[in-house]
Amino acid sequence: MKEKNISKFQEIVSRRPSGGRGYLLLLWALLGPGVIAALADNDAGGIISYSVTGTQFGIGLFIPLTFCLILVTYTVQEMAMRLGVVSSKGYTRLVRERYNKIWMFYLMAALLGENLITLLTEFIGMSAGLVILGLPLWGGVLISLSLVVSITAFAGYWVKERLALLVGLLNLSFIAVALVTKPSFHTIGRSFLTWSVPANSHNVILYVIALIGNAVAPWMIFYQNSAYIDKGVASKNIRLGRIDTLIGCICQVLIAACIIIVGASLFGKVPDVANAGPATIIAGLNTNSGFWAALLFGLGLFDAGLLASITVSLSSAWSVAEAFGWAKSLNDKVTEAPKFYAIYFVSAGVAAGGVLIPHLPLNYVAVVAQVLGGILLIPILIFLVRLSSDRQLMRNYGNSVLTNVMAWAAVALLVGIALAAIMNAIFPGIP
After folding, report:
1. How confident is the model at residue 1 (pLDDT cuts 50, 70, 90)?
2. Structural domains present in the chain
């Protein structure tokens, strides 16, 4: 007889058979929040930002920089995973208990504001992906919203996680698009030695900030922290959580690099790309690489927006529910956790409505969302480092010396890009 309250994850891990089949089942069980969060980090806004970056600057600087950021992404996500698994408490609740309600409300408000802008870019990307199929904008937005909301109709955390993983795996289409554009692998390899920027490039700093800001988004910490708790991962499974997180980070960087390569195939071929919409990039691909490249990119953009819309909305719902002590599990039905799901529905609905605002500068909004995310992340990350270093809270699972060094280096990096963003706003002429 099945034990009461045992999660599907623990059931598979504890009862898996020996041999090759057992290892496959273990791999299937461990893939989850780490992979989903990392793949969702390559959201519609990030894809637009990556492709615009490649279109404006090529690959010389941004491909190697993207691969360097894997250490930052893994360090932050691993701390968020470990904090949730060991404490069995959500991030906002821990800030309230270990510090005070003022900081909790500040972090929650900052997250909700950033998430709303991020969700706006997700629906921009999803609707653009459907418009290429001939749908009107309002139709694309309506279908996108319906799909984001529909996941709540399925029962249980495990089923919802498996569905999210399936959606995330469709991100692999960007690898196919990159290959279709016939990139020069010699040039890509050489970029790691030269780190060159095209002459007469402007606003390079802004796009570097956006790239770093997209590597670690605020919502990822809240999502990663709460999802592992909801999944039923225990302290004894931290090693599996780290493998899940590492696989996700590797996939995230690889796909991000492919998107920059796709954008670079349009280098010098798209006028005023910074102020154009994603439809302009899709049209450029259609002209230069053919219909299938454009179609795959559009579908990948839709898929990325769908996955990120689900995870970002969930991070908002988990954050608010933790703060007020509401029921908040994906194992609950809508009627069992109405306030939790209400936050989810409202977040998605408001963002979807924002897409219909006339003359919205779509690509600029996508880049700004990444920049703002990098700035807002600083206080969130500082609390994360302090909480995951707290031996009273974390017992023997607190940060190692190396983890603390890398974590505070990530904080210093984000402070640096925040200052750079402010300087770029005051002196926009600086390249």
Report:
1. very low
2. 43-426 (1.20.1740.10)
